[in-house]
């Protein structure tokens, strides 16, 4: 059978998703051939992740969908979500956007990956006990090999809370990939990863495609879109506004938004002016000989620095080097094994704030976003009008606040988390991958807002980002944990 005659891996026809009377995704249609790739780019909240959830049959409660979906030739109504559940892991697999939510917090890393291999390859019911034991041993071997291939060998015996966000992303990828489903939907597979790890994930996706696996890839990473090739679709306000060969669309975009998206790639940013030095500049925190280890693994040692008001200091180092751990020590959330962190005198307990790498971890899951923010405003006697201004600057509709955290996109939740922290006007912000879920246009706007806030409000920022171009453009200096 010729490739042209093969049944498409995925056909989406007239797919729409709505919340009440509000249309979130409108009449989207596309097809992915067997072994093909479609990458979706677009701003946070444009409907990319909702498309993936609708295809899987896993939309959040309260959302409705219409249209038809065919996976490997099996056609179902989009509204009949339950009919697609039987194909999870066998016909289609989803790597979700939040690695922390994808992993079992009570299960060690090796077991989480091995379990997938075991479920896929275990003998049928009724076989001998020795066959089951052999399958289990083989699954463990495959899991160890897969973990080692992504530099996660040392993480095999750890729980998810003991590893970095970037490492959790790679573990979740391996657990999803192990099932070998012919169609994979990957949602932001490179967020929070350093350049070398991004290359490894791109290599895994290319290798999966070479084995005939079809990919629907949702990303804000223009570099990744180029690296895996295939077709590219650009979404805006719930509609697919442009689609074509990836290289062609990125080289000569036709839609104005696509042109803005490409122009806002961090590689094209201009460097911001450095914070002006002055004799009266104040020190917010002094870091003196700080070191930290977990068991026999030493993350960093002898780190010293002065953090001054108004400056942006990048914390750099490869994934797993302890960047988040270092920031938590500066905040006082963790104790160092050696050294000390001294705050400036007179600062309130809430003067040091954190923007979490995974914003879902920063909100009560069963309270509306409005309720969480109103509690904060009331507790600290803040001005809600200031919050309204921050949300408007980040192009967040007020109606989003009436939803639960799980009912908005990762990028929308990340911006709401940032607005909440800026509202507090802290003396120091530890921004842990604060734009990892944002498209290039919004990422540029949010980083500009964060930098302006630091300058205008005498606030220091400790910035963790995997993107070297962002560090080059906005940081006044850096603390390298691997130097």
UniProtKB/TrEMBL annotation:
Keyword entries, A-Z: ATP-binding, Cell membrane, Membrane, Nucleotide-binding, Transport
One MF term in the entry's GO annotations: ATP hydrolysis activity
Membrane topology of this protein: Peripheral membrane protein
Domain ABC transporter, chain residue ranges per copy: 10-262, 285-483
Signal peptide feature range: none
Subcellular location: Cell inner membrane
Gene3D superfamilies, sorted: P-loop containing nucleotide triphosphate hydrolases
SMART domains listed in its UniProt record: AAA (SM00382)
GO terms for cellular component: plasma membrane
Family indicated by similarity: Belongs to the ABC transporter superfamily.
Name the UniProt record assigns to this protein: ABC transporter ATP-binding protein
């Amino acid at each position: 059978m010729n490739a042209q005659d093969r049944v498409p891996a995925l056909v989406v026809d007239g797919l729409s998703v709505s919340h009440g009377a509000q249309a979130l995704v409108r009449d989207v249609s596309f097809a992915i051939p067997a072994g093909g790739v479609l990458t979706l780019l677009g701003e946070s909240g444009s409907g990319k992740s909702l498309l993936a959830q609708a295809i899987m049959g896993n939309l959040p409660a309260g959302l409705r969908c219409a249209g038809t979906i065919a996976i490997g030739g099996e056609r179902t109504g989009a509204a009949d979500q339950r009919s697609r559940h039987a194909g999870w892991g066998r016909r289609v697999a989803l790597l979700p956007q939040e690695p922390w939510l994808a992993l079992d917090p009570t299960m060690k890393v090796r077991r989480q990956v091995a379990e997938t291999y075991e479920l896929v390859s275990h003998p049928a019911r009724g076989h001998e006990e020795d066959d089951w034991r052999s399958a289990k041993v083989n699954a463990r071997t495959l899991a160890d090999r897969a973990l080692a291939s992504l530099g996660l060998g040392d993480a095999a015996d750890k729980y998810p809370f003991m590893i970095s966000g970037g490492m959790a992303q790679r573990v979740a990828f391996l657990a999803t990939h192990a099932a070998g489903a012919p169609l994979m939907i990957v949602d932001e597979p490179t967020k929070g990863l350093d350049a070398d790890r991004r290359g490894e994930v791109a290599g895994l996706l290319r290798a999966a495609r070479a084995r005939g696996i079809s990919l629907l890839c949702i990303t804000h990473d223009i570099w990744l879109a180029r690296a895996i090739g295939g077709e590219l679709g650009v979404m805006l306000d719930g509609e697919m506004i442009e689609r074509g060969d990836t290289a062609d669309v990125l080289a000569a975009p036709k839609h104005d938004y696509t042109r803005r998206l490409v122009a806002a790639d961090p590689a094209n940013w201009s460097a911001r002016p450095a914070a002006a030095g002055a004799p009266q500049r104040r020190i917010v925190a002094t870091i003196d000989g700080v070191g930290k280890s977990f068991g026999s693994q030493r993350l960093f040692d002898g780190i010293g620095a002065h953090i001054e008001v108004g400056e942006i200091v990048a914390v750099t180092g490869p994934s797993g080097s302890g960047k988040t751990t270092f920031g938590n020590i500066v905040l006082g959330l963790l104790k160092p094994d050696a050294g000390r962190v001294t705050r400036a005198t007179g600062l309130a307990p809430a003067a040091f704030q954190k923007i979490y790498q995974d914003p879902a971890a920063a909100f009560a899951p069963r309270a509306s976003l409005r309720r969480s923010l109103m509690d904060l405003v009331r507790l600290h006697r803040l001005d809600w009008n200031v919050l309204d201004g921050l949300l408007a600057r980040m192009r967040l509709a007020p109606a989003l606040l009436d939803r639960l955290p799980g009912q908005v996109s990762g990028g929308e939740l990340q911006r709401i988390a940032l607005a909440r922290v800026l509202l507090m006007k802290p003396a120091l912000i530890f921004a842990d991958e604060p734009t990892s879920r944002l498209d290039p246009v919004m990422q540029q706007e949010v980083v500009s807002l964060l930098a302006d806030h630091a300058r205008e409000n005498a606030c220091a920022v400790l910035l963790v980002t995997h993107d070297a171009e962002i560090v080059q453009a906005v940081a006044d200096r850096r603390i390298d944990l691997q130097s």
